[in-house]
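Chapter review: from sequence to fold.
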Amino acid sequence: MKLSRKALKSYLESARFRACIRISLVLLFIVFAEFVVHGQTEFMDCQNANVGPNSVVVGHNNEKHVYSAKTHPIIFIGGHPRSGTTLLRSMLDAHSSVRCGEETRILPNILQMKSMFDNDVEKPRLIQAGITDDIITSAFSAFFIETIAQHGEPPKVLCNKDPLLLTQGYYISKQMFPRSRWIFMVRDGRAVVHSILSRKITITGYSNDDPEQALRRWNAAVEAMNAQCDRIGSKRCMKVRYEDLVLHPRLTMEQILEFLELSWEEDVLHHEDFINKDGERGIRVSVRERSSDQVIKPINLNALTEWVGSFSSDILRQMSSLAPMLTQLGYDPTKNPPKYGDPDPEVLENTRYLARHSSEWTKKTKKLLKDMEKVV
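The token string follows.
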């Protein structure tokens, strides 16, 4: 049958055609993810074949490392942007058993497809296509484990820092990675919003010139993440305050490593020594992540209270109602400036050292940022 141009154009613009395209994309994603896993079976031992999606990474000396989504104790670092997730992942990257690496950026985008699969229109179509929830979850797991495992050198323990994955943390921890551990980084929302606005950081739904709206957005996002962490449970999701990590890095990292069942290593307190270094212990940093210019320095107090004096008196009066999660997370919305605690002597000395050598560190920062650029 020969179609006229008008009829063809009408069909291409129809809801039916768009639905066919969406279904096709879904099926392509699932087929690709399954292919990634099953295409590597020649590397897998028989004992690993029945434990769910796997990824095989070939390291030095041609040694093969097999990571299973169902059995690997992968670490996920979550939290609101500008809450210290990059600092924590850099400190964990300094541990000889862990590799986090840069944000993948693609995993949160892939996971957003789940909401499309679950809606009232798409769900019946998938059922009729024979695509079950188990198939979709297996496909997500395959894509995730392959992306995270192949992201860098093969470590003993994989780690991921795509902070917004925590918004669906319970699904990931329950259905995809049942042995995963989660760190929920929490920071004073006033400091978070000030950082976003002052650095002109683009986050969907945020206005860079409306602090009142930004505080409400922060509150809603953190409330949702906090609920996810509570649902995962305290045995597998640990809440860590950014302020505690900065003021008391040794004690806080001891608690974190104990929670993750990792041995203590002094290197986690000196992550800056490994930034941009070659080899298995080197810490890769993305120049596109807005915290990179900060984590290349030793832990210091400079960013802790930069927000003080940045909000109008009207917003300060409304702070309790604009961001009620401040109180729930242990912050006093009426304190301005706040009292987070006294820093450890080492942190105080780091801060003074950076002040004494500010020009030297300005030059060093520019060089390190330039070295971070990756050439394809």
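Two observations follow directly from the output. The longest strand covers residues 181-186. The chain is about 50% helix and 10% strand.
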